[in-house]
Amino acid sequence: MLIKLSGGKVYDPAHQIDGKVMDIYIRDGRIVSRPRDDETIDQTYNLNGKVVMAGAIDMHTHIGGGKVNIARMMLPEDHRADPNEHSDLCRSGCGHAAPSSFTTGYRYAEMGYTAAFEPALSPVNARQSHLEMGDTPIIDKGGYAMIGSDDYFLRMLTAKKDQNAINDYVAWIMHASQAIGIKVVNPGGISAFKFNQRALDLDEKNVHYQVTPREVLKALSRAVHELGVPHPLHVHANNLGVPGNMDTTLKTMGASEGYPLHLTHIQFHSYGTEGDRKFSSGAAQIAEAMNKNKHISADVGQILFNQTVTASGDNMRQFANSSLASPNKSVIMDIECDSGCGVVPFKYKDKNFVNALQWSIGLEIFLLCDDPWRTFLTTDHPNGAPFTSYPHLIRLLMDKSFRNDMFTKLNLDAQAMSTLNSIDREYSLYEIAIMTRAGAARLVGLHDRGHLGVGAGADITVYSDNPDREKMFEKPDYVFKDGELVVKDGQVVKVTWGHTHTVKPEFDRGIEKDIKQYFDTYHTMSMENFKVSSDEIAEGGRGGVVVQACEGRREKSL
Amino acid sequence: MANSSASTFEAVTCPACGLLCDDVRIERDSTDRLKVVDKGCAMSVTFFERAVQKTSPSIGGKAVSLTEAINKAADILRSTNQPLFAGLGTEVQGMRSVLSLADKVGAALDHMNADNSFRNTLVVQNSGWQVTTLTEVRNRVDLLLVIGSDIVSHNPRFFERNVWNKESMFDQDTSAREVVYLGGQNIDTSAGVSPKGVKPTVLPCDLESLPEVVAALRAIISGKTLIATEVAGIKVSDLESLSERLKAAKYSVVTWVSSDLNIAHAELTIQNITGLVIKLNAKTRSSGLPLGGSEGDSSVNQTSTWTSGYPVRSRFARKHPEYDPHHFSAAQLLNNGEADALVWISEFNPDKTPPNVNIPKIVIGHANMQGNDADVFIPVSTSGIDNTGTMFRIDSSVSLPLGKLRESALPSLGEVMAAIEAAL
Ligand SMILES: [Zn+2]
User: Fold this and answer.
1) What is the pTM for the complete model shown?
2) Are B73 and B67 in contact (CB under 8 A)?
3) In whole angstroms, what is the distance from residue B404 CA to residue B280 CA?
4) Which pLDDT score is estimated for A532?
5) Using CB atoms, which residue from A83, A196, A529 is nearest to B401?
6) In B, which residues are within 8 Å of A69 by CB distance?
7) Using H for helix, E for strand and C for coil, what is the string for A233-297?
8) E strands within A136-185?
9) Alpha carbon of B389 to those of A131, A476, B78, B308, B403: distances in Å?
């Protein structure tokens, strides 16, 4: 089957293509070069005037795993208000803030997204994450394994194990949990909370292990780099949500001593303590540091006003925030001497000073960070807002007058504390394509996604060039997944199973002897059962595991 | 299938209770009989060593081929408007197939343990809770408070694996751990005796009085002074000293088994338990730990929740999932005449038989169920013995693969449900 996408305006930043009118050819799920004149084209889509991009990639979204399912379980009221009927093609489902898995896949695809990455896959809970993502159709997915508060790793730091041993353990975790990245959440803090510490600053010691977050960050960022894992260490920094935490964030940028770091939902970590209410925007300083420090990337974690639910591995901070829950309920868990979680429903209100300023801070960061290759569009779904609000967020970034209209509706004290309406920048389609496609694929390490070059998987989204960018991005004309038309006019027309992307860095398998002994002594499951097999992921004909290339062992180069 | 070769399996996962111990050793003889030879318990022996009777699919008690039975089941489901899928004794992969068919035919779903599960689920949906998992308990607990249960009737190896384990991550002297039983009469507290012979504290009361006792303990922990000197036969001074011990503990764990709280206001009692845990966390660390679990109940609820947005009791009659903890109970729907066919599922346990009904009845279950009174009976293999599967532990964060220990001529539940769906 040879398909021609004819005459669309193409935005493919990986190849510096910025709105050029050109044809794209697809064969057997891949983008191919222009066929010979005597080859038969089976199907042609006339895309004159349409905008063509690679399928979008959400590099940080909580779509599968224990805490997401707790959020679903505890919020029947969220689900009742938002039912999805089944059709001949699609399964039924529901949910606004924490949608059911099938609904999640359909809604992403209908928005032109073809891949989404679960950023907090707890290794001990990895099987559940993959089960849920396995029931999320159409889109590709993957996960970042969350370590840094796990006993085995912290023991290694206490014992001052050499970096090679740490690298082997990190690689082993990635294999066992079928991950494509490594994440650290409140480095060392999830563990510290279990020893009754209620806060942990960058240079404060975990009382049991006598290890600081800075040491955790250094060891893990170096391990990820030396293993050749494309995605830099994914960091949810200490002190999330705490006024004044911008100082921790600025210091965290230096903590890896030059090894790449990705700072996630940086909006929640960009708060100052100025003003009468001791809560202010640190966006300018954070953006300045981002612009200067080329080894740092960040996704924003924009908040938008509505009911949502916050779900995080950061049980220390979620416990502290549980008094703000709306509706008033929360689940806080310690998990297997490995991780934790906290699920707290929350309603962001534009008339609330703090919420209004959070909204402004996120947008200020977007607009003040110069490099869209290192800045990513997220709401930290569902923590800042559900992923379905991305089209609205894109319009806020691309349309200054729309943004300023929204700004004038905010809490007045928050308006007075923000510089947002003095910022003129409007994102271009090219920059949006960088943030949501080319940059995201490069950051995650998806070599054959996020671009439209020959050999890429044919994940392609076609939009009508509507000046109302919210309308444009919420309902693409066509979405192709691996070359198959899966969405037409914003509706699913075919259901496929996406792939699960992983990396498999090399490591010394000899370490399993010690790990097995450790599991047998201390754990309540065996080491073998901790590992998730590729067969389990492909169960029932679902999409299988794809191993993306690792860059091989890298020496310390910085 | 006889005459396979004998074999020994190490580290088998046991789905008989919510602990999912995965260290069980099992021998298979040349006639495919299984024997638990190490790390067993009464429940795992019953589960693995059950002799499977030869049986065949049947329609109205008459043996038929599998295809005929499946076609008949599809016929029945095609002609109904409000089918009810109940029992639901299965694991994740089986439940995936159940949910797919239920969505298609607009079925209502209920699990045989739902009355018990809801005592916990309603607390999560109403106030949330603060809870922990088994490995945390094994390595951290210094004071275990057991409320209204002996635990071991439901989870025989809980103390062996998680309380009296010899080694712990943080060099705790595990034999010095303290155990307190609160509530219930004549509870077997022998599992709570430490390896050094230290007896647990036991504060008995009638189960019916447990709500007021737990409410009193929560009030004391919250700093309120009680005027009474006694609550349901327990001295207030004993509750006060329990409160002091909980406050002094570094990581107390408060546990209960929802199926043992067969009392009015069970949810309020659990809410008071989780409420006192949250109070303790103002100063020290404490966690709740719901135990029990059987017949795949937590696996079914987890799978249903990510797939449809709700735990069971749910219904797909209106093309989208609906949820109602009371109205969609199998008993209610049957009593109200709101079900016009029953599909009863129990792959683990032949003793979990369907209710008597006067609507068409399809039984898909363990071979030993026979199912002569069913309109259609389809015997299926058992996950964890005859086919692989996936199961959630009672503490919800951990799921484990279930192994296949022998060949079975029977289809799995997943295969049967998929075949019915294809035949519709
Ligand atoms: Zn996140």
Assistant:
1) 0.97
2) no
3) 44
4) 98
5) A529
6) 302, 305-306
7) EEEECCCCCCCCCHHHHHHHHHHCCCCCEEECCHHHHCEECCCCCCCEECHHHHHHHHHHCCCEE
8) 140-146, 181-185
9) 12, 39, 29, 20, 7
Which 3 state secondary structure label does DSSP give A116?
Answer: strand
Interchain pair A337, B414: CB under 8 A: no
Chain segment B160-185, per-residue pLDDT in tens: 999 999 999 999 999 999 999 999 99
Kindly report, as residue ranges, where domains of CATH 3.40.50.740 are found in chain B. Answer: 54-113+295-388+411-423
- Residue A501: phi, psi to the nearest 5? -85, 135
Q: Which tokens is B151 given?
A: 């635990």
Tell me the Ramachandran region of residue A150: left when phi exceeds 0, alpha when psi lies from -120 to 50, beta otherwise: beta
Query: What pLDDT, on the 0 to 100 scale, is given for residue B3?
Result: 53
As its CATH architecture, domain B54-113+295-388+411-423 has 3-Layer(aba) Sandwich (3.40)
What residue ranges of chain B are covered by domains with CATH 3.40.228.10?
117-291
CA–CA min distance A548, chain B (Å): 26
Q: Look at the block and give the residue holding tokens 């990895």.
A: A126
Task: Quickly tell me which residue has 């005027």 as its tokens.
Answer: B227
Q: Name the pLDDT band for B371 (thresholds 50, 70, 90).
A: confident
Tell the CATH superfamily of the B117-291 domain: Dimethylsulfoxide Reductase, domain 2 (3.40.228.10)
Low-confidence spans in chain A with pLDDT less than 50: 557-558
Per-residue pLDDT, B2: 47
User: Residue B391 above 80 pLDDT?
Assistant: yes
pLDDT tens string A458-512: 999 999 999 999 999 999 999 999 999 999 999 999 999 999 999 999 999 999 9
